[in-house]
Amino acid sequence: MFRSRSWFGGGLWKPKNPHSLEHLKYLYNVLSKNQVVSENNRGLLVETLRSIAEILIWGDQNDSSIMKQKCGSYVCVQLLQTLNILFENIRNETSLYYLLSNNHVNSIIVHKFDFSDEEVMAYYISFLKTLSLKLNAHTIHFFYNEHTNDFPLYTEAIQFFNHPESMVRIAVRTLTLNVYRVEDRSMLQFIRDKTAAPYFSNLVWFIGNHVLELDSCVRNDADHQSQNRLSDLVAEHLDHLHYLNDILCLDISDLNQVLTDHLLNKLLIPLYDAKPHVSSVVSLFLLSQVFLIITHEPLVRVLARIILTGNMDIFSQGTSDKTVASLVDKPFLEMVFNTLQCSENDYAALFALCLLYALGHNKGTHLKKINTCALFRHKRQETKHWYNILLVEKLIKIISYSCQSNSRIRLVTLELSIRLLTQLVMKNSQSFLHDCHLAAIEGAKEESTALLRNFYKSEEIFLDMFEDEYNELVKKPLNVEWLMMDHNILLPPTGTPMTGIHFNKRLACGEVERARRAIRVFFLVRELSLTLRGEEEGQLPLTNPQACVQVDNVLDLNNSDLIACTVASKEGQKIRRFLVIDVIQLILVEPDTRRLGWGVAKFVGFLQDIEVTGDKDDSRCLHITIHRPLSSSAANRVPLLSAKFIFDDHIRCMAANQRFVRR
């Protein structure tokens, strides 16, 4: 009659059997009622932890079936959850020391819970991660026992490095980083001697298998049917690289030496020759990510040397600096350069460009200390400046191909080629490009101009598109790091917008998109030409918003051509206004009552957005529609104003119409 309706209600009184499930329920209730540690309850909590540990140890040794029962599993979940909350809430270090004393927490850590239960697994790993957040130079000694050479918090956690649940894997990574950050020589020596080689070996093996899975997804999804799966695989791989970089950035030399060796010899170098190997596209993508994310000098310098100056002997002779520096032929660099050939498409070329960009921007490679004539420098005899002629000519070909009418080079590839070219041939805002190469760029600019003319008269909204594309280009310059996070570029280039892929990362679809592409190519190549010639842009954008008249601006209309008219809307409203037509705008003004010869703008519209038709029944009238400025991606043109303009006589009506025609 006194039984509580709560499942744990039976745990209000201490059971007689100290090793029973009922006693574990009772201990849970004690913890749940004491989730904030104080001087008054510290002794009770320590005794509770001791009792929990005792039950778990007794169960392991005598009757493990207790915890595997449904009710036992549920008790474990609640206990782990409550322990997690208890340690999360501790702010006082003295209280923390008190709870961690006597090794009770370590006894709970090493208990073999039923990890097939997802909830038990989730709360267990969360509990371990919470404990790792409490680690420092003082608390580490409660978890790492130097005398017994035992560190259960770390060794138990890393067993789950490849757990199927991403949440568990992420928690393990967080925990290991929290451990590595503690500056304790003996603990780090334990990790180096006992766990670093097997853990890093297994981790690299896991990443390598993940790479093979990613490569398989790319090979088998030419029709873009597995985008969600590919997105998850790329995101997971980026997490791996950031985790590796986080470890390397802690600058623990012993750990870094082991990790670097495993990465080079068991993952990165075998990308080119291991069986089963991955495709060249995926290889270039992965190597680009390595140089964009990881900056550890001993790793990226060796890898850069292999790519720039290495030969096939690297697979049999190892990765020592001496071996790399005695090398003559360069098959890896040759492969990268050959990939830049994109007369048919730019699928692989984009990744080769990304790799070259990443090599040049990684602060750990120190390209000046490597034989950089292989990539970024080729000495010129006639001047003090130099650059790699072969690479520059490859980039110029990509630029030239982009300007052809049937080009299958995406805008992102063109933009990255231009960025690399300027990096190669510019110094202190001055170009040292050969005249013949500069002439090739000027030729490409002329081709882009000719291509653009094809759309000038065929597209009704050409000027809107022209302005819109310029503004987009200025607002959103290429970010290579963000580009390489997009899984879509791993799939063959497609032309349909229904994939959801951004316009500059796919081929144009239809005449409007081909016009947009021609406009963007023109802007990019024009900007390159101006940069190489050291000239400033003085003509774009065509419309400077700061120079345009805005509604409610007060204008000096002295010596201006004004035409009086009545604006009759379709709703029947009539308003008397003065019409002003300047270089790019139609302006309707009303006189300023405070100053003679001045007026207030009440409506403005761009002349490029205006449609004018006469009235066959009244020679004093014009039907004028002013459209809203249109984004090139918009579907319909929405009028700002559609009205009948009634002039005082047919002469003034003709004068207004002639001004519209001249503009």
TrEMBL record:
GO terms for biological process: autophagy; endosomal transport; regulation of autophagosome maturation; vacuolar transport. GO terms for cellular component: Golgi apparatus; late endosome. Residues 49-180 form the FPL domain. Keywords: Autophagy. Residues 228-322, 329-661 form the CLEC16A/TT9 C-terminal domain. It comes from the Eukaryota. It holds the Pfam family FPL. Belongs to the CLEC16A/gop-1 family. This is FPL domain-containing protein. It comes from Timema genevievae (Walking stick).
